Amino acid sequence: DVVMTQSPLSLPVTLGQPASISCRSSQSLVHSDGSTYLNWFQQRPGQSPRRLIYRVSNRDSGVPDRFSGSGSGTDFTLKISRVEAEDVGVYYCMQVTHWPPVTFGGGTKVEIK
Amino acid sequence: QVQLVQSGSELKKPGASVKVSCKASGYTFTSLVINWVRQAPGQGLEWMGWINTNTGNPTYAQGFTGRFVFSLDTSVSTAYLQISSLKAEDTAVYYCAREYGLDYWGQGTLVTVSS
């Protein structure tokens, strides 16, 4: 199974400042079709997860442009350019290149300092 | 608009069974798989598997075979998760989510197993 490792576990951020979350996979996430199936999700307190980014860098509809995804191979990053209060929650990366199983990272908790 | 609406919370005794539903609307139900994801209290997300809504063929992750069954009723655009012989460690929120990329999620169903 592909192991997804996120860091840091916890990320205290000052409002208006940037934040960056790392996600590393135990093997390359490049599919034989050439695509990389790495997604990012946000889970606000008490809510269902919401997909923010698909295939490394594509923002889902309605996702603010302060969220961006980048990376390749085994190393990926989610960046928030200027953190707002509504961004508090846990962020997960997920791979669906090598299935089954689909695997998630352990999560990164973003909180306001 | 796409919606996945799940059934309400359940409180069950150990050894009992539970069936969670996930009703889809806003798209052609049989065109995209439905995933099931478990989140134990205070824990992360764990993929349980998916069901092909066109063929009815399920794929289960390791650890979710035997007591866990995915099923469909395409006439009402609904997917089901049934868990039998419930144990305390099955206490969790169970989510359904659409398609391989998990683009839309249900609101979650809390299943509590307690004597």
How is this structure best described in words?
- The complex is a heterodimer of chains A (113) and B (115).
- The mean pLDDT of chain A is 98.
- In chain A, strands 2, 4, 5, 6, 9, 10 and 11 form a seven-stranded mixed beta sheet that branches. Chain A has a four-stranded antiparallel beta sheet with strand order 1-3-8-7, with no helix packed on it.
- Chain A has strands spanning 4-7, 10-13, 19-25, 38-43, 50-54, 58-59, 67-72, 75-80, 89-95, 103-104, 108-112.
- Chain A has 113 residues and is mostly beta strands.
- Chain B is an all-beta fold and 115 residues long.
- Chain B is built from no helices and ten strands.
- The interface between A and B is medium-sized, with 24 and 23 residues.
Attribute tags:
heterodimer; A: 113 residues; mainly beta; seven-stranded mixed beta sheet; 0% helix; 48% strand; globular; B: 115 residues; six-stranded mixed beta sheet; four-stranded antiparallel beta sheet; 10 strands
Tally of helical segments of chain B: 0
Of all chain pairs, the largest interface belongs to:
A-B, 24 and 23 residues
β-strand number of chain B? 10
Order of helices and strands of chain A: EEEEEEEEEEE
Helix % of chain B is: under 10%
Q: Which structural category fits the helices and strands of chain B?
A: mainly beta
State the helix count of chain A. Answer: 0
The 3D shape of chain B can be described as: globular
**Unreliable segments of chain B (pLDDT under 50, ≥5 consecutive)?**
none
Shape of chain A: globular
| Oligomeric state | heterodimer
The pLDDT mean of chain A sits at 98
Spatial order of the strands forming the largest sheet of chain B: 2-10-9-4-5-6
The main sheet of chain B comes to: 6 strands, mixed
> Could you describe the largest sheet of chain A, including whether it forms a barrel?
7 strands, mixed
Cα-based radius of gyration of chain A, to the nearest Å = 13 Å
Distance between the termini of chain A: 36 Å
Following the backbone from N to C, one meets helices and strands of chain B in this order, namely: EEEEEEEEEE
Compute the separation of the termini of chain B in Å.
40 Å
